[in-house]
What does this fold into?
Amino acid sequence: MHRGMKRLVCVTLAVCLALPAPRAEAHPHVFVDVALSFEGDGQGNLTGVEVTWAYDDFFSLLILTDMGLDPDGDGVLTQAELDQLKGFDLVEWPEGFEGDLYIHYGETKIALDHPVPTDIALENGRIVATHVRSFGPVPGDGLRVDAYDPTYYVAHSLKGPIRLPDGCVYTIREPDPDAAQEEFREMLSELGAEVEYTGADVGNIFSESMTISCAAPS
It folds into this structure.
């Protein structure tokens, strides 16, 4: 979710006033389950990824209310409403925003093309939005994938499903919550007691990290 969308939610619905400031501990306010489906070229390279974000039900309700969708609250959107909702989270991408998805091959960060929305749904009260991003081709073996919001306003979870071309597998490294919070507190202490925390880049401290392994093409 881009920072413009965060401002939209906070300003339009005034929820920021009800949110505690993350001083002693960092805690997100929006929760997103992430599914990834990678495309390959058949030669051991990956060339793009389909990203699905399933937003938590409270945030979904805020968005639907703000956009005037599902006024009867039955959890069913008309096709016209779905068309209006599609791509809602991709409209405004501030300069420098990378889409909360980071892919590295060794020390090299892979440049991802601007997202193209491909699908939208409302499932059990949750907005499920899908977009695709092209890149590469880059070798799949050893690729590292991180999904996180640098400000940790949004917590992304790689709950999947995760789909890869044949011959590729993945492993996910889970963060240590206690160690992450301690690192966060140490970062705040270095800023100084009178420095207000306003969204420093800390999301990577709390994020999962996925590593891809691919067998050499035969």
The chain has one domain: 3-214. Confidence is low (pLDDT under 50) at residues 10-23, 193-199. The helical segments are 3-13, 57-67, 79-85, 177-191, 203-206. The first strand starts at residue 30 and ends at 40.
